[in-house]
Amino acid sequence: MVSPQDKIVIIGAGCFGISTAYHLSKRGFTDITVIDRSETLPAKDGSSNDFNRIVRTSYSDNVYTVLAKEAIEIWKDRTVWEDDSYHECGVLVLASRVSDSFVDESYINDKNQGSRVDNLPDAEAIKKVFPPHVPVSSFNDNRGYMNHDGGWADAGKAVSYLTSKVKSMGVKVNGGHTVKCLRRRNNITTGVECEDGTVFEASKVVIATGSWTSSVFRDIGLKEKCLATGQVIAMIQLTKEEADRYRQTPVVLNFATGFYCFPPTDSHIVKLAIHAPGFTHTVDNVSTPRTIITNPEDGLAIPKKSVLALREHLRTVYPELAGKPFKSTRLCWYNDSPDGDWIIGPHPEDGSLIFATAGSGHAFKFFPVIGRLVADAIQDKLDPPLAKKFAVNRPASFAAKTDGVRAAEVVKELDISQLCTPEDLLLV
After folding, report:
1. How far is 157 from 160, CA to CA, in rounded Å?
2. Residue 244: what are its φ and ψ, rounded to 5°?
3. Residue 20: inside a domain, yes or no?
4. What is 226-288 written as a DSSP string?
5. pTM here?
6. Which residue, of 109, 175, 223, 243, is most buried by count of CB atoms within 10 Å of its CB?
7. Which domain holds residue 20?
8. What is the mean pLDDT of residues 86-114?
């Protein structure tokens, strides 16, 4: 049984890692160390370091709806979460006009949780969600609902805030430590050895390494449990006058296509993306993130076909913006599980090794609370249904992928020869 005086080492200073450090510290743990490969935190190429992430309660799985509702209350509570990184603009959830059980079940779950939702049965109802001066598409192929209890969070700002907070609580946060291997004695994890020779001994080691998990820890059987996938993102730079026109729009999330986009930021940037199976980048038989750090020249480039797809999807929401050049692109790397559920809990044969990973592209909205689940797992207090749901050895494999709206398509290998060029971003 772990005690608050035991040494805890958390590998990874992103969403899972920093939230876990926070919740352990709140429980009185006094010897917590967080290490990360990046010298600068949050890591420049980490998925938790972005300027906006969707915060929604819209899930067909009520477990996530309830937890997201709690997270939003904390995002909004300035007595708990002093940072102003959360922006409540509402989330427009779109579905196709034909049957869409995911959206229908999400709407029911949101209503049952008391969220402020408006049913939008047709195109005319959808268009009324937007300010009258904003040119929008016809939405003839859509229905959906508006959830006013949601919006977006500045992920990089939020991680920086909580990192500072955990440091003030006594947590040691050390960047610039790339893990070489786990240290073991009698098949039990006893610490971490880094590439620079530094050793961190621990009673519990928490793996919170996101999309790098499978490529860093090749010897602990995660290949069928974790898959690094790159998701396509693009940004459009507006003028202040242009941005002001779109400033009061909601987050738009189309579950029929996976496309989503945000209102303009304070820097007048509109971000758009597609929540899809994404792309793998296989190195030595394991998908490994390819980023601006690993490939400085073209690590932010996305496939040329994806540039066109993003533009066509944007046209189905904001036709005027679809004609503008893209300012930049990025592959945001997820750590996917086959069923879209997270992996939180101990290794089945090594109780000193704890997993806190497989965010599957939807974990960040839970940043204020997700570390509580990991802390529960560390203390062997996680509710049995959740422990079963998030167990690393649950019956789920990529051979029978069941990750909701993303399961219908097949992940593709990234073709480096077909990455976009700056000229491709200008074509409209």
Report:
1. 5
2. -60, -30
3. yes
4. -EEEEEEEEEEEPPHHHHHHHTTPPEEEETTT-EEE----TT-EEEEEE-SS-EE-EETTEE-
5. 0.97
6. 109
7. 1-56+152-226+339-396
8. 94
